[in-house]
Amino acid sequence: MYALGIGCSNGDYTSNDLCFTYEKASNFKTLPTNYLTMCHRIDLTQFPGLPAFNPMALVHGEESLTIHRQPQVDTEYTITETIVDCQDKKSGAMVVMQTEIKSKESGLIDATVQSGMFIRGLGGWTNQEAR
Q1: In the chain, where are the structural domains located?
Q2: CB 115 within 8 A of CB 39
């Protein structure tokens, strides 16, 4: 479904995309960007230390993906998400999260995702005199 959602074709059997859209294809594989569908499990509205905010004020700000190994079919992964920074942007707060995706079998990091989530209206907490 992910492959179809980002534009791969499931049309004819000569399509180069068939390996991404048909699970019985002999060379079935997943797109490397599929790692992005595995992360973002933290509920920021319940995160200790963050003031209460309306989840409708949460905006996806930025994202980077570092692929260390290609994703494998029939593989279980362990996902560890950590908030690594919270920045005062005056009109809101930028919460920066880092996600490590590891293969359960090898224990090696297969991908790292860094995401910035902007929370409108949550900024303005830094000391103005220190600037």
Answers
A1: 1-30, 32-125
A2: yes
Q: What is the pLDDT along the chain (131 residues), one digit of tens a residue?
A: 677 777 777 666 556 787 888 788 888 888 888 888 888 777 888 888 788 899 999 999 899 999 999 888 788 999 999 999 999 999 999 999 999 999 999 999 999 999 999 999 998 887 655 44
Would you identify the CATH topology of the domain 32-125?
Thiol Ester Dehydrase; Chain A (3.10.129)
3 sits in which H/E element: helix 2-5
The overall pTM is greater than 0.70: yes
What lies within 8 Å, CB to CB, of 18 at 6+ separation is: 10, 25
